[in-house]
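From the thread on structure requests for the teaching lab: each student submitted one protein with a one-line request. Submission from student K.M.:

"Model Branched-chain amino acid transport ATP-binding protein LivF from Pseudomyxococcus hansupus, tokens only."
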Amino acid sequence: QAFPPLLSVDGIKVHYGAIQALKGVSLTVGKGEVVALIGANGAGKTSTLRAVSGMLKPSAGRIQFNGHETTSMKAHQLVPRGMAHAPEGRGVFPNMSVQENLELGAYLRKDTAGIQADLEKSFTLFPVLKERRKQMAGTLSGGEQQMLAIARALLSKPQLLLLDEPSLGLAPQVTEAIFRTLREVNATGVSVLLVEQNAHLALNAAHYGYVLETGEVVMAGPGKALLESAEVRRAYLGE
Ligand code: ATP
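Reply posted by the TA:
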């Protein structure tokens, strides 16, 4: 399966003071593709997503998105270009209702009818959000907040959805529901770059995967192939 290019990350380095978190990471995400980034704690997964979404600026390397050089762009410049980031820790606004959080996701859009239709769509994807649309987001369960963060990101109508640890702290059934929804979202043409500690889940869901170790890509391949690799099974699947 060949995907036309959408995101291309080429040799990016990220430093936090004296700490080098990324030592030259390269990866690509195609149009319609789901790509997983796996690796241990501190491997650099979150830093990679932050660099891609413009939350931090790499000290070296290049990022291109949708045919444009975006290396130095900030998050607010990337959202209108079709990139949405559902960060680790969810980042929903606790003192706003579910509905208000969702509407914020669409703040750059002017197509009122389209927004309304997409709100309804997110309620179809996540029925629990419909039931709770008047409830303050801070009172939702962890899983519900995760769903809200994903739904809110989708309301910007992204071509690329960046997802950080969607399974973190969630019960297996909730995680399963989220991954099922991810497949539905992807089926509508949205590309996904997914960071996950749960390698099994992530590689099962992904067309392609990258393994990060101490700031470097040490292995890459189709999700299914990585799942079958002895090295991945030993290091990341506890076998
Ligand atoms: P985790 O799964 O634990 O979130 P990760 O693979 O996402 O890990 P990063 O969060 O990208 O890894 O961190 C990569 C390295 O950079 C780690 O050694 C981490 O301690 C360091 N690091 C991350 N953020 C900062 C920061 N703000 N200041 C200093 N060091 C940081």
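TA comment: The first strand starts at residue 5 and ends at 16. DSSP finds ten helices and ten strands in the chain.
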